[in-house]
Amino acid sequence: MDTWGWEHLRPWLTARVELPVGPLFCVIDGPIRGRPWSSAAVRSELRRYAARAGVRRRFAPHQLRHAHAVELAREGVPLNAIQRQLGHANLGTTSIYLQGIDTEEIITIVNSRRAPMMPASAGLQL
Questions:
Q1: Sign, Cα dihedral of 92, 98, 110, 62
Q2: CA 107 to CA 116: how far, in whole Å?
Q3: Tell me, what's the pLDDT at 34?
Q4: d(CA 75, CA 113)
Q5: How far, in Å, are 64, 93, 122 from residue 83 at the CA level?
Q6: Which of 18, 56, 24, 20 minimizes the C-alpha distance to 39?
Q7: What Rg do the C-alpha atoms of the chain give, in angstroms?
Q8: Coil/strand/helix, residue 26
Q9: Which string of DSSP letters, residue by residue, matches 9-31?
Q10: Could you say which of 10, 23, 100, 122 would form a disulfide bridge with 36 (CB–CB 3.0 to 4.6 Å)?
Q11: What is the C-alpha separation between 56 and 51, in angstroms, rounded?
């Protein structure tokens, strides 16, 4: 991770020391502070934040893994280091993440197609 990343992670690491040992994702503040946060709750919360930020396309947290891998590759990070960062046992899995990815091509394609929209009745409350 670069200096910018550590700088933004440091407040969480400081707060995490005060919380009970447990899952990485936990509630920071509120009535259930320090309790585990389920995977489903993480996905739901990230979708809510995406909607609040104006992201109208479908969104899944796993996309962040792919984006992270692509950014590392663009910065020249060796494939085996990306493999370790993502926790892949097989280097082939990591290479599939990056295989044939040309970010400019993807951006052009995504910008030229109609975005899949979430229906207004999806019940997202912001």
A1: positive
A2: 15
A3: 65
A4: 28
A5: 15, 8, 36
A6: 24
A7: 18
A8: strand
A9: HHHHHHHHHTSPS--SSB--SST
A10: 23
A11: 6
Own/partner contacts of 123-126, CB < 8 Å, gap of 24 or more, are: 124/47, 124/48, 124/51, 125/48, 126/48, 126/51, 126/52
Comparing CA positions, the residue from 23, 20, 18 lying closest to residue 37 is 23
pTM above 0.85, yes or no: no
Mean pLDDT is lowest, of 7-11, 18-22, 49-53, 94-98, for: 18-22
Q: Quote the pLDDT of residue 37.
A: 72
Tally Cβ neighbours within 10 Å of residue 16.
Answer: 15
Give the span between the Cα atoms of 83 and 95, in whole angstroms: 8
Cβ–Cβ under 8 Å, residues 35 and 27: yes
Residues in the chain: 126
CA atoms within 13 A on the CB side of 98: 20
pLDDT at 76: 87
Percentages helix, strand, coil for the chain (3-state, rounded to 5) are 55, 0, 40
Contact (Cβ atoms closer than 8 angstroms) between residue 56 and residue 117: yes
